[in-house]
Amino acid sequence: MQSFSDTLGQVFRAMMANKLRTFLTMFGIAWGVGSLLVLVGLGEGFRSGQHKNLANFGNDMVFMGNGTIPALANQHTGMRPYQLTMRDEAAIRSLPEVHDVTANLSRNDLYEVSAYANSSGTVLGVEPNFSAIRFVPIAEGRFLDDADLADRRRVAVLGAKSSLLLFPGHPLLGETITINDVRFTVVGRVKPIGHGNNDYDNQKVYLPLTTMQELFAMKGENIARDALSYVEYQPTTKGDATAAMIAVHRVIGERHGFDPALKDAFNEWDSINEEKMVGAIFSAMDVFLGGVGIVTLGLGAVGIINIMLVSVTERTHEIGLLKALGATKRSILAQFFWEGLLLTGISGLFGIAASAAFMGVLQLALTDKMPGWDPPRLVPWSAALAMGSLVVSGVVAGLYPASKAAALDPIEALRRE
Length: 417
Prior knowledge:
Order of helices and strands: HHEEEHEEEEHEHEHEEEHEHEHHHHH
Helix content: 40-55%
Low-confidence stretches: none
Structural class: alpha+beta
Distance between the termini: 27 Å
């Protein structure tokens, strides 16, 4: 009975007998596997990059700003503006369809000064739960709390870039800044938010909303003292803001005297719907890129099928000789089984290793360098799909013709060229 080592020896001798053909076939398989993995990884990079962008803004939330009321649906002349207020926020908070709500007042015309430098980033009056709805990771110190809001304290939390501009190379906790000549104590610093040059959030300065309304209320005619810039809320039903948006529209319409069916009257952005849309777009991209990769992989599979068919045909005479010398059909099939398995397995592993190394270099070179996009990464299911399909192709392509040749009478097999 032929040993396993003898079988592997015959396999390697057969592969080395046609070095160029074997190399080209293995290269084609490795290229197909690598192409599939890189293309699928590219699609996943776009998906994860967009997901991070949305996560940096805030997850599972609806963002509503001040709007204008059209006289008629779809008519954009003679529109009446309205401002959201703290009373609107209180009405939204009472809705069972709303899990949580926060309000803020934003000003871009204020001037911040420290003992070392000055800045003019956005000043934002917020409530303590702002950091629970929006993404505000604290690097040092603390965020604003209920006592800051209740006592109208003059404290500030600095964004990452604002802290660098106002306190370059200096400690900031407990230090003082002035905003339009009003003194504030710095109680915290936020970690960098976003990627690349997208540093709008990093230039913000956060104040208690009550303090902001007292000192820097919104300017303009017929604007309420408690007017807000935005209200942001999270739906009670996670991942679906439909019911919450209908309820909020009803409340805002009633409070400001317009029909809530006038969609143009609302200035809002639904992060849940946006993420679903982005997911659908990138799922389609995954299908397209995966399809291109599978076509490339299919060419590699055709190559392995071709070489196995040719190999069996060329060695029909050898199979007849082996049978004449007493070799069993099982031992003959084992030789072609291992040949197909080794060809596809080794080539596939080379393809996976090369693509993983290439994507690793891209990760090191491009991570956080391109906003909205992450470098491609190895996706395990695509590697498993590539290896599985190639191994099956190689083994079947070897076993099927080999079984037919092994079934021949030894004399007839010896007669064939």
